[in-house]
Amino acid sequence: MRLRPIHGLLSALLALGLTGCTFDATGLGESGSGGSSGSTEGSTTSMASNTDPSGATMTSTSGGGFCGDGMQDPGEECDNGELNAPDGFCSTECKKAFCGDGIKNGIESCDYANPDPNAPACTMECKLASCGDGVVQEGEECDDGNSEPTDDCIDCVAPSCGDGFTWAGHEECDDGNGDNTDACVDGCVDASCGDGFIEQGVEACDDGNQNNDDGCSNSCVSASCGDGEVQVGEQCDDGNQDNTDACLNICADASCGDNFVQAGVEECDDGNGDNTDACLDSCKDASCGDGFVQAGVEECDDGNEINVDACLNTCKSAKCGDGVIQAGVEECDDGNTKGGDGCDAMCKKECGNGKVDPGEECDDGNTMNGDGCDSMCKDECGNGKVDAGEECDGNVGLKPHTVCNMTCKLECKAVAEGDAWANCDMDIVMNGCETDLSQDMTCGACMTTCKMNETCTWDGAKYFCFM
User: How many helices (H) and strands (E) does the chain have?
Assistant: First the structure.
């Protein structure tokens, strides 16, 4: 036990008295008054131990002092008086405590010469082993003696991805979690487009490849029509909203019938297959001659340029009075439905109907020439031309003693008053009238027939055949 100062001194005096020695109560010498020689020179380090009435052990030095008197006497390494203690800086034997003396004392937390089996290991500096002491102890992977969280040892554990500390030179980040949707992903690398992880709030998608047509673009934007990349399910994608080019804004190829007029390709596009409206299903503007009857505009459309069939080139239905003779249907068409102008109201020719209509000279019920009424229903007799069935037409070039009557037939005529010429050889056309019936004894009595090419001639006295 420790001795209080006064009590310790009294005990020391008592002990000295018992041994017949005197003691300087001040602890400076062996006599109370300075006495004789109080020098400690030549003294040994032997000490005598006594016990005071309280039971405390005091050790005296050969020089007269004692351990615990607060004075460092010869032979003592230290003396802190009442502070001397077995586990103090100075022991009760006035020995300085030191690391390795087997006693945990002073500022020591342990003593490696006498370690506590129930405590952590004790270092050679008599400190309990701990992370950060620079010594790798059992249970530690490393110990670099610092608290730097970015070097090769963090809290005595080798750094690893996921420990929450960014290992300098090895990791780009380390958020200590397994969440791959934040800014730091597996492998402790910064999240980036193409890493295969969708960063929340930043990326719409991330498929981890550089394929731009698989639903997720290389900029980690979800594929959509209009992004300029042709994705699966899209026919095209030109990245614009123009519906008049080759790619619609629904990412489908422009085509006839899509209801959008493709510039430079289509004339129209009404999005239906109705060929009776203004836009055909070929995306051409409806027009006369396209073969389709445009409702409300055309009466017909036969797709040709033949004007004599049932549909005119104006896409009007052919009819009597349109001015075009419909083949196989109409005989004539003078552009009206009035009669008396050569074409009746039924587009039948009036000439040849057997009725003399206004403008006709004749109508024998046919339109043949050579029957007295020509194909234009004009009298053939009197036209100055010998037509079929006529012997003459006019009195030009007639044979002697002949005349052309009103029916274009040759007749014999008298040369002088009282003459009665006759065609004795029955060839009035070739020979004319060669006989004067008033002269019985001549050829005129037709008893003598003039030969071919002879003419019965009157010489003033008689008739005779004359070539």
Answer: 2, 11
